[in-house]
User: What shape does this take?
Amino acid sequence: MAEIRKIGIIGQGALGVMYGWQLTRHLGSERVFFIADSRRIEKYQREGIYCNGEKTEFQYLTPDTKGVQADLLIFAVKYTAIEEALDDTANFVGGSTILLSLLNGIASEERIGARYGEDKMLYCVAQEMDALKEGNQFSHTNMGTLVIGNRDNKRDERLSAVENILRKAGIPYLIPEDIMHCLWSKLMFNTGVNQTAAVYACNYRQMQEEGQIRDTALSAMEEARCIAEAEGTVITDREFSEWMQILGRLNPEGMPSMRQDTKAKRKTEVELFSGTLRKLGKKHQIPTPVNNWLYEKIQEIEHDRTLGGGDETL
Assistant: This one.
C-alpha cells in the first residue's frame, strides 16, 4: 500500500486549520505543511493561529518552493479562489500525489481533476463539523466526518492510504457505498438553504416556518434533485424528508455560510450551487427557474455592495 509521508494543505480557514492542526499534532510538523504566499505567512506568524485556544505550530511553504512533492494535497479554499489555489499548488503535485477537496458541491473536483488529472482525485464531503473562525482564533467542538471515496466507488491503494492517515490522525471518516450520491445529496440541501438565506437575508428560523422563504428553498432543492437524477443519482422522497428534518433541528438563530458571506460583503460560492445547476439544466433540458432567480439575485447582491475582499479559505 502506498504510504502518505508528506501532506500539503492550501487554505487556512476554519476547516483547513481544524484538520491541519489535527494532522500536525498526530503526525508532526515535518510531515504537514500549508501553502501560502509570503504576505500571508508573515501575517500568520506575526499574529499566531490558535485552535481551541492552543497556539498552532504550522510549517509553511511558498508556491515557488521547489523539490517538495505532497503525497496528499488538501484543498480547503473557497470556490472563488480555486484557480489561484491550482496555480499555487503546481510545484507540489507529482505523479503519485492524491488530491482531496473539502469544498462543497460537485464542481471543485472537476476543476482540480481537469488541471492535474482525474486519476489523482478522491471525492470528499465534509459534514457535521462546527468549526468557526474569528480573526486568528479557530474553534470547534465537533470535528465532523470526512466522507471519502473514488468516483467509481472502488477501493484502491490511494483510498486505503488516505484511510490509514486519517485513522492515525484521529480524524473521523466514512467510506460510503456511493460517494457521488453523498455529494449530490448535500449539494441539493445547500442549493436550497444557502442561497435562500443569502437572498432573503434570513437565518434558519424563516426556513423552518411555513411561507414563501421555505417554499423557495424547497423549490430550489427539487430542481437540484431533478438534475441529480438526470446525472445518474436518485434522491428519494424519504431522503428529501430527512434533510427537512435536519433543517428543523438547526439552531433557529444560526445561518448558513452564504448568508455569512453576504452579511460580511464577501463574494459568495454561488457558482458551486445555482451556477452548476443552471449549466447542467441546459445540458439535460431541465428548467431551473428558481435557481435562475436565486443566481441573478445573488449576483445583484454582490454587485450592489462594496465587497470587503473577504477570506477565500474554508
Remarks:
- The chain has two domains: 7-174, 179-304.
